[in-house]
Each structure stands twice: as C-alpha cells, then as structure tokens.
Design a protein that fits this description.
The protein is 42% helix and 20% strand. By secondary structure, it is an alpha+beta fold. It has one domain (3-174): GAF domain (Beta-Lactamase, 2-Layer Sandwich), CATH 3.30.450.40. Helix 1 runs antiparallel to helix 2 (34-49), helix 1 (3-29) runs parallel beside helix 4 (152-172) and helix 2 (34-49) runs antiparallel to helix 4 (152-172).
Length: 201
C-alpha cells in the first residue's frame, strides 16, 4: 500500500471514529430509555471495530452485571455476574486499566469461563473501564472470534466510549424535571473560588 493510500485509509478511519463519538453524544441528549441507549452504543462500537461481540458490564454493589450486548444472547442480561477478583473483566475494573489480547484470550491466567456465554471461546479480547466522575462504574468488552490485532484507533475509541458511557449514566440519574428547572449557571458560579481580598494601600 502506497503512502497516499495509507493516508487516505487513516483519514477515513478518523472520520469514522469521529462519527461514532458524534452519534453517542446525540444519544446522550435524546429522550431514550437507558437500555435502548446502551444497546445503540454497543452496536456502534461493534460496527467500528468489526467485532463479533461488544458487552457492557455495570456495577451492582460489589459485582459487575452484564447490562448490554451486541450479540444474540440477550437472555443473559442482568443475570451474568462476576466479582472484582473474577476474570479479565473484573481485573480491568479493579486495576482501572485496559486489556488488549490479540489471540487465545481464554488462555490468560485472569480469564474466567462462563458456560452460557459463547464469547468464552473467542480469540481476541479488548476491554476498558467505564469511568464516571473519576470512578470506575463498569467495563466495556470487545471480542473477536478470530485472532485480531487491535489498532490504536480501536483502543482510543473504546477508551473514549467508556468515558462517554460514564457521563451518560450520571445524566440518567437526573430527573428530566430537575434538568429543566435547575439554575445551571449557579452550578458554575457557586463552584468558583472566592476572589482574594483587595490589598490595602
């Protein structure tokens, strides 16, 4: 591939990446159910990464619960659970670090097998924490059936999506009436540090 073609491909991927961010931002301001929004997010991520599966786990007390899936096994939503000391997903949440494994993820010492999830046999695994107000509140996993070397664009996209999902979940806790009636300027002004006293002349 020539340099001109490489540049064209890189620009095209950047445009696609920006498109995903824009679509998720629009989802954040629409009046949709949280479930529908998360399902739309996992589909956007799957399309960009050409993944066979994208899963979102969120915290429920001390456990991570499967809450959204791009795959067909929707029956597992709300039922598949793991603790922070279980699996690659638990490790990502506990350590607040990305994991990118291009092949044989099921052989990793941190891996946990779920008999009811077909992803247990998938080769490639990419996972990042979901962050809200500088706290880990969940994990996003992207998996491929065949070996797959994750690109920098894929890792960057998933990291940013993890932050966007965190913001989305914070916003979802606010009642629509509270958003409409809040004095939003006060939130900024009240948080500003007091001005220092004027010097005596």
């Amino acid at each position: 591939m020539g340099k001109t073609r490489e540049s064209e491909v890189r620009i095209q991927r950047l445009e696609q990446q920006l498109g995903v961010f824009q679509k998720i931002s629009r989802l954040m301001v629409r009046d949709m159910s949280l479930n529908d929004t998360l399902q739309a997010v996992v589909q956007l991520v799957s399309d960009f990464t050409h993944a066979d599966s994208c899963l979102i786990y969120l915290f429920d007390d001390e456990e991570l619960v499967l809450c959204a899936s791009s795959a067909a096994h929707r029956a597992g939503l709300g039922k598949v659970r793991l603790k922070l000391n279980e699996g690659l997903t638990g490790w990502v949440a506990r350590e607040r670090r990305m994991v990118a494994i291009p092949a044989e993820a099921y052989k990793d010492a941190r891996f946990k097998n779920f008999s009811d999830l077909p992803e247990d046999t998938f080769e490639a695994f990419l996972s990042v924490p979901v962050i809200a107000r500088n706290r880990v509140i969940g994990v996003i996993n992207v998996q491929h059936r065949q070996p797959h070397r994750h690109s920098g664009a894929e890792m960057e996209l998933l990291t940013t999506v993890g932050e966007q999902v965190g913001c989305l979940l914070v916003l979802a806790r606010m009642a629509p009436a509270a958003v409409e009636t809040a004095n939003h300027a006060d939130l900024v002004i009240a948080a500003q540090p007091a001005a220092p006293p004027a010097p005596h002349l």
